[in-house]
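Page 42, continued from yesterday. The earlier attempt failed because a stray header line got pasted into the input along with the sequence. Redoing it now with the clean sequence only.
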Amino acid sequence: MPSSTPSATSSATSTKPATCAMQEPRVSSRPERLKTSSSLLGQKSVPASSRPQTTTTCSAPILNCETIENKIRKNIQHSWRGILKVCQEKDVSKLGEILVSDFLDIAEKFNLDLSEGEINQITTKYDLQKNGRFAYYDFLQSSILLLKPQESSLLQRVIIQKPQKPMSPGPQTTSFFSAMLRIQPQILCCWRPMKRTFKSYDESHTGLLHIADFRQVLHEYSIDLTEEELFNILEYYDKTLSSKISYNDFLRAFIQ
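This time it went through. Structure tokens are written below.
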């Protein structure tokens, strides 16, 4: 299987699968100075002064609301772009936060089906600045990407095989989340055939692909990463600079 990096205009293999329509991407996390949705939609970047200002590292909420978040994750993953749009309209100061009352209205509008107790837990968890406001960027990021492997019972079907040796990930930067969220709609659309294609490139059955092959598979599904996006993804998935990436770990972030 070839391992040289394909050009952006190189043609896909003879059995190139059906591509998925591009959808508007991304939601930013709180770590660095956040980008707005307009720049993600192929428009010009918004001046830095109008972007949400946040800390330089990803926040780690104290409360464990995993059961609640798992309950609403599927709904969030398919409607996060609409939720983000409404949140940004409410967030006139571009701080990445909104009033808790605004979040309650949004939760009702998008049928998140949360009880009063669940609302209290979620809003307490994402009151990161302890100022009575809801950090919607962190909430959406946590709901869309699953970077921490989920526990499963013996009766559950394993969708993406877990690695025998847990991955030691790199930093979760804003640029990493931006790249992952931009391609999330396409991955959800065609991850099953993509998984089979990854395996076909993995002739040694190690679960790892050379970077060039990994990028080629994405290209075959009309997902073309910029050099910056590839660098940020590799910074997380290839912290040891082995020039290889676990495609199961990559897919698991989108599908669990």
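Notes: The first strand starts at residue 97 and ends at 99.
Reminder to self: strip header lines before submitting.
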